[in-house]
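Re: the 644-residue chain
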Amino acid sequence: MASIVVNGDTSGAVTLSAPAVAGTVTVTLPSASGTMAVSGASPSFTTITTTSDASISGLTVGKGNGSIVGNTTFGASALAGGSQTGTNLTALGFGTLNVNSSGGNNTAIGASALQNNTTGSNNTHIGYQTGFNNTTGGSNTAVGIQALVFNTTGANNVGIGQDALRNNTTANNNTALGYQASYSNTTGTANVAIGLQAGYSNTTGQNITAIGYTALYANTTANNNTGIGYQAGKAITTGADNVAIGVNALQTNTTSANNVAIGNAALSANTGSNSVAIGYAAGQTNTTGTITAVGLYAARFNTVGTDFTAIGLNAGQANTTGSNNTAVGKDSLYSNTTAGSNTAIGNQALYSNTTASSNTAVGYQAGYSNQTGANGTFLGYQAGYSSTSANNTCVGFAAGSYSTGTYNTYIGRSSGAANAASTASYNTTLGGTTGSAITSGENNTLLGYNAGTAVTTGYNNVCVGSNAGVATNPLVGGAYNVFIGNSVSASGANVSGEMAIGSSTATTGKGANTGFINPNGGGVYQGNNSGSWSQVSDRRLKKNIVNNTDGLDKITALQIRNFEYRLPEEVEELDPSCAVSNTGVQLGVIAQELQAVLPDCVKEESTGVLSVDSDNLTWYMINAIKDLKAELDTVKAELAALKG
């Protein structure tokens, strides 16, 4: 084994050839300057010790300029600044940290990374020309070709991806992850861009968050925008304070502000301001309308309709230009297009409405079939379900559910046209099942539970009270009837012109064109306490005036009788409902007997019952008194003659 030791001069060159036999060669380089060349079959070094940086194949290896402990350099011109004092530096690559002076705790990996940094500290840059122009900016992180390449003094930035935050100069506190993310940002601060070209065009806009492929791509100077999702808010330029979350959310918006779009394609065509859309395709085609849409397809096809609120799956989905509408519930106002000022709350409320305005529907399928009828109010499950005409009010479970007429007011559970198709108009019903069978009857007023519930074709009837017009003989047709009181009944299904007022369930009308007041069998009093009714008797209203002389002969032909009224079950030749409830022995005439003498005092009602009008009896009795007076005068004259 051979050992060779060579000591060089102060200058010059030393050339060694390795011994033929394996051995160790120790070389002390010249103290000032010089070169060493080693040749051999396979030369290798176990340890190279040098007091200054070494150059290997053109690469500088060592501590860099200043030879400060803790610094690491590897690459030509790496950490080569003339007055380098920074510590804890790592420079790997050509020109990395080339002019660094006092900047410390920096890591630069890649050709020209942090090449112009001077005093900036706490930076980590990995990639070709990352942070190339940085001078004093600190606490920045750049990973990717030319990430943060133009940054000079901006601090606390993170750019990961080729060209991420490429044009940032002095802005602070930005985060960009992805190819060309926040590419154009210069002085905008506190921005977050994650995704390919996310926030690409932003220059000075602040507080923007862009997450997703080309999210907020066109944003330039607008502040406080959030775009999360593929192309979310892609076209926004100067519109501020927008939130776009979801694929293509707020995709078309440019300069409009204060919008919130959450969900795929939410407000994707929007160009206006102050709209909120949450849900897949919510407000998808809205352009300039101001809307609030929450739910899948809510207000989907709205374009310029403004002040529109749609909440629920498909709520107001077909609306285009209708304004001032509110739709809350699945499929509410589903078909509405141009109509405005409608309120639909409940699953499928006002579902079919298209062009009718100023309707209010609250409840499942309330006003479901209404298309063109305006000014309707429908409150309750399927209230006004079939309504197609205008100016109807239906309140209560299934109230007016089969009605297609107009100007109807149906209030109460199943009140008004709730059982069968109805074209009737101008009816008012109030109470559970009141008027529920109406089909074509109009101008009826029915108030009270079950009042007039059997009326179908009857018109201009009034029923007030629980079961009024229903008990005993339910009113079906007929007109101009009035029934007031609990269970006050008509005398027949199709009677007309009948009035019955009572406080007893036994009150039944007396037939067509009659009036009956029954205070539970008690009396009826007048304010003047008179036992008779006043009547019109003005000569100026009369004609064909002649004397009537019927009197004593008619009165003396009458038979006054005592009798009792039959119970309903004892009535055989008439409807039992015609029975009179008075009990005990009564005093009066028999209509058939009176009819034989004074037929004008007896009338056969529509029920077949004979009734007595005693009004004419008064006048017959006056004539009878006059007859008696004449006879008395004759007798007196005869007596006087006898005495004379």
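The two ends are 206 Å apart (CA to CA).
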